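Q: Could you fold this chain for me?
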Amino acid sequence: MIVAVATENNMVAQHFGRCPEYTIYGIDDGRIVEQNVIANPGHEPGFLPRYLADMSVKYVIAGGMGPRAQSLFSEQGIETHVGVSGPLNEVIEAFIEGSLQSGISTCEHSKGGHSCD
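A: Sure. Below is the predicted structure, expressed as structure tokens.
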């Protein structure tokens, strides 16, 4: 399976669409078999779900993501996990173990001048 994590300074980024990069993990039989970091190709409504689906991503992890984005990912067959924070290595291990705690989206709209709704 392939998992994309919104990344900033080796931590889970607060906002999926506006993070500087994504860490893409290939996971097989409970182990990380591949890890790549890619630059964020840009925040354009509807683009990232298609872009990541074309990379065979099945799960995305971020601190925050709006409901519209979550819906667009769902349409591509990608499951989203928001409200996540912490160092990447701890988060991906929790995901693999099935103990990752998702929660409420942490996106702060006042700083970015955007609305995730």
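A (continued): The beta strands are 2-8, 11-12, 21-28, 31-39, 59-61, 79-81.
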